[in-house]
Amino acid sequence: MLFTRRGLLLWQLPSYARRNARSTLAGFFREMWVAPVLALTLGLGLAMSQPAAWLVAAPILLLWLVSPIVGWWISRPLASPART
Predict the structure, then answer these.
(1) d(CA 66, CA 25)
(2) pLDDT of residue 21
(3) Distance between CA atoms of 61 and 70, rounded to whole angstroms?
(4) DSSP codes joined into one string, 35-82
(5) Contact of 46 with 54, CB cutoff 8 Å
(6) Burial tier of 64 (Cβ tally within 10 Å: 0-12, 13-18, 19+)
(7) What is the largest CA-CA distance in the chain?
(8) Would you give the end-to-end CA distance of the chain in angstroms?
(9) Cα distance between residue 62 and residue 70, in whole Å
(10) What is the reported pLDDT for 77?
(11) Cα separation of 50 and 44, whole Å?
(12) What's the Cα-to-Cα distance from 78 to each of 35, 48, 66, 68, 74, rounded to whole Å?
């Protein structure tokens, strides 16, 4: 693209199309299950071993925990303005 100034051939594998078709909150949780599980595991591990470190890491862990919800929310289609 840098030299030819033309668009590249765009294509998608069927597995990507199926994965990107997830539009429900449950679908996002199925796709992104690792983030909340990892946040809970790390949070529990830090709380047991070093409570002060847990308090410092809590905001990042909270963001990780809610990442599927945020991903679903920002992926919703835009609402069309109401015509009067």
Answers:
(1) 11
(2) 64
(3) 14
(4) HHHHHHHHHHHHHHH-HHHHHHHHHHHHHHHTHHHHHHHHTSPPPPPP
(5) yes
(6) buried
(7) 60
(8) 44
(9) 12
(10) 77
(11) 10
(12) 26, 43, 21, 18, 9
> Would you state the pLDDT for residue 42?
92
Q: Which residues of the chain have pLDDT under 70?
A: 1-13, 15-22, 84
The string of pLDDT tens digits covering residues 35-56 is: 999 999 999 999 899 888 888 8
Q: In the prediction, which pLDDT does 74 show?
A: 87
Look up residue 53 and give its two tokens.
Answer: 């470190």
CA distance 65 to 63: 5
pLDDT of residue 54: 80
CA-based nearest residue to 33, from 68, 76, 75, 71: 68
